[in-house]
Amino acid sequence: MMWLTLIYSCISGAALLYALYRWVIPTAVQYHGGLALIWHDVIVERMLDTLTQSTRPQRLLNAVQKNATRGDPRSVVKAIDDFCRHKEWAMNVGDEKGCILDSVVSEINPAAVLELGTYCGYSTVRIARLLPPHAKLITLEFNPDFAAIARQVIAWAGLEEKVQLVEGASGDWIPKMKEQFGITTFDLVFLDHWKDRYLPDTKLMEECGLLRKGSVLLADNVICPGTPDYLEYIRSSPRYESRYFKSHLEYTKVEDGLEKSVFKG
Questions:
Q1: 36, 156, 255, 262: least buried by Cβ within 10 Å?
Q2: Which residues bind substrate (predicted)?
Q3: Domain contains 8
């Protein structure tokens, strides 16, 4: 009888822990940005890294290779969204804000795009699949491990010929854009890297002459985690016409949004 009680207690305890991990805590942090980021991006990621002896980007890539059709960008985007909503949160722009990104890309129909912050290539695929023929997308990623995964995701989507993935710091590469890649100016810049780099990199692009009249800056996560110095600059500068698109932090109910800023010259 004692053994049965012990087994029952262990099973009940395990069931409770699983319920807390799978449903209770994720639901509780859905509306709080700080708690959501700590839970998903620190606690859960480190726990799963230890248990699986793999990294989150590797697990995301596995989901793409298992569930997406090779050469089909839409299925790659869907596979990543399904993974992030139902398996494991990841810091992509996400499906909700991704629709805003899609609409901006389609509206501009850019010939030259710069993405700052590739991560695993989710937004790269979203952008590249909508570009006109012969358009160029340069995406910068500081972390070589993320870049290695992103290359495989982009290749699985069949978009490697449209995308130039560059490893290194944005502050080092932005001044080299014209010389290294033959870029005159960018039609669209998508900012989704370190938040404290949004403002200095914007000023650096201005100084390097990479923005023309009509160039669009689209910045993610301007509310959560937030980029207050960038927003203050971009909204108060007479050189930009700026608009905020309200949305939510990827795969949560926390307010976040995209800031679209048109360079006036």
A1: 255
A2: 195, 221, 250
A3: no
pLDDT tens across 80-109, in order? Answer: 999 999 999 999 999 999 999 999 999 999
Check the annotation: does 109 bind a ligand. Answer: no
What range does the domain containing 129 cover? 95-263
Nearest to 123 by CA among 86, 83, 81: 81
Amino acid at 259: E
Tell me whether residue 54 is in a domain: no
User: How many folded domains does the chain comprise?
Assistant: 1
Catalytic: 192? yes
Give catalytic status of residue 95 as yes or no.
Answer: no
pLDDT at 233 over 70: yes
88 annotated ligand-binding residue: no
Helix axes 56-67, 73-86, angle to 10 degrees: 130
195 as an active site residue: the answer is: yes
Q: Assess whether pLDDT exceeds 90 at residue 122.
A: yes
- The structure's pTM equals 0.91
> Would you say 237 is a known binding-site residue?
no
N-term to C-term CA, the chain: 81
